[in-house]
Amino acid sequence: MRKWKIWMGGIAWMCLFMGCSSGNRQEEAAEPMQDIISALNDIPKLYLVEAKVDKVLLMNDQEWYTIGNRKCMIPVTAQVKAGIDLSKLKDIRIEGEDVYLTLPAPFIEIESSEIKHDEVQTSVGLLRSNFTQDEFSQFANRGRRSIEQALPGMGLVEQCQDQARTMLSLMIRKLGKNPVIEVPRYNTEEVKKMIIYKDKQK
After folding, report:
1. 136: how many CB neighbours lie within 10 A of its CB?
2. pTM for this entry
3. 69-88 pLDDT, tens per residue?
4. Sheet with 90-95: strands ordered across
5. Any residues with CB less than 8 A from the CB of 152 and at least 6 apart, and which?
6. Nearby residues of 111 by Cβ (< 8 Å), 6 or more positions away
7. 167/169 Cα distance (integer angstroms)
8. By the 8 A CB rule, do 13 and 40 touch?
């Protein structure tokens, strides 16, 4: 059981890049295209798509050797961002008015994940002990893994690529060139490898 909402980012960066004075734009247009593309290497990671992911975990702790039941419903939420690192642009070539490049693989960053403690619901039999903090920590880890498994199916990579292609195309066309941008496609296993955690821990 899950729900998510996604919204786009990166427009502010484009406005900043494109919003210089006309004099500056003419000066930039006069520069060699290679220098402009090389300048992309100095741009930090671009976060282009953000998502809030909500999952609900249902736990039923009843075995043949237990007397009574323990159940809980645990809502888990995570903040996720997807982006692209332009410093990883490779194989850029210029042929006349055409600029050829291939988008590097995006990344999907899980910024934070937590249990919504005020929404947790439990049902514990009279002869059973309450859930411990240790168990809730384990549930949080399960929730994080569950969210991670859901990410490849959310279309974050495709949305990120669309945003990046649009931004780069606008920039290249403003310089009087024709963008020819290759957008690689990735399978589920490849997308899983793009997932990272902000705290570098799983």
Report:
1. 15
2. 0.71
3. 888 888 889 999 999 988 88
4. 90-95, 98-102, 178-182
5. 188, 191, 192
6. 78, 79, 80, 81, 198
7. 5
8. no
